[in-house]
Predict the structure.
Amino acid sequence: MRTTPTIPAEDIARQLSICDEIHAILDRRPGQKKAFVDTYGCQQNEADSERLRGYMARMGYEFTDTEEGADLVLLNTCAIREHAEQRVFGNVGALTHTKRRHPDQLICVCGCMARQDHVADRLKRSFPHVDLVFGPQLLWQFPELLLRKLEKGKRVFATDDVPGAVAEGIPVVRQNDIKGWVSIMHGCNNFCTYCIVPYVRGRERSREPEDILAEVRELAEAGYKDITLLGQNVNSYGKDLGRGIDFAWLLEKVNEIPGDFLIRFMTSHPKDASERLFDAMAKCEKVAPCLHLPFQSGSSRVLQAMNRRYTREHYLELVHQLRARIPNVVLTSDVIVGFPGETQEEFEETMSLIEEVRYDALFTFIFSPRKGTPAEKLEDPMPKEQKSANFQKLLQRQNEISGEKHQEYVGKTYRCLVDGVGADGKLSARTAGGRLIHLEGSQDLIGTWQEAKITGSSTWALFGEIVG
Ligand code: SAH
Ligand code: SF4
Ligand code: F3S
């Protein structure tokens, strides 16, 4: 049975006509109107910002890369860890100065932080210069909310816990013309005990495959070379659509779209990763030979306390199955150090897991208690200093492994996509597996595939020269 709520097309059409109304209001004010969008957090937020920019462009805004002098400032925020939230509060606070110099400046805060009641309260009480606050589920209503602020002048807080839906037809202004994001689903049902995402992003809902495939086709036709399918757990794609389709099926369909592009996806939850997925990855020539498979902890006891619903053994079995099909697959992961109650022995199990798997790269986090999650209330006896020491130990060992894995590339030649230029003037490129290469060469090559011979390596990157 289909359970996915959808925003009717006429509701989006109404938002678009509100954009035109706002355009007319802005036209009556002197000067070109400029907007600054500041995005925090994950690719999901980047993809959301591209839609918010789409709306803004339709309202007649031009984009600027600084808050100074901007008529509209929008912060699309992340709530995943304390540090992310502190940065946002710091930056929101600093906007009092830009607004003093530019009193008409409109300041909007949206994204995952905005959906938390305690954050909305704090913005209301302590940041009177913030004009509009709305959570991720109300993104599609941004034009309507902004118009309310413009017409009535009063601050607007749209932060209620409304159920999420799928909204199609919102215009998009993308930030990059080589790499594109395509959200395939929104929300999360997993409730890992440390994680805020299900509370702020609502339940899982998948986009219809026709809409996803049309978006990918459009990107491919526009010459995009690297397309990432996004969802908090792409492996549960389609479950809510009642059409008997799954993520492996979607991958195969995306793979059939003509064009010289690579398909990536994130994130995969190990509890739903399967041989069926690995078979599809191996079979589809456009699917990049890499997988981001967060393990979070090497201890089955801690995994259970995290509500991850797999064991260390099952995770290792998945890695084995994947490598049997794609021997040189680039494997990356996320891990949390210092989950409440994690013992020193359990941390050592995380150390031994990274030794066993030998990831190409690892994103390491120290546990950060999130308000309203079950883990926030757990006893957490390990001293901070011990957690930091463990974190450093893990990081150091992983850096060695990453460096060793990078060394194996030296002397070999890889097809890579040139995607930009670094501060040092060197080109940056990515292998199909997603490893970064610094290359000498002309900027004209950006957006092209090249063969690169790897001449050197470090922990973080490869160095090479273009051949052939
Ligand atoms: N949906 C993705 C992850 C999204 S959040 C998945 O399930 O894999 C990205 C990473 O942030 C997580 O994998 C986890 O390692 C980390 N993370 C999430 N909540 C955290 C918290 N409260 N403290 C520390 N790290 C956290
Ligand atoms: Fe958070 Fe777990 Fe959902 Fe990932 S799967 S977003 S870690 S609750
Ligand atoms: Fe952050 Fe929300 Fe993404 S909490 S990591 S921006 S889903």
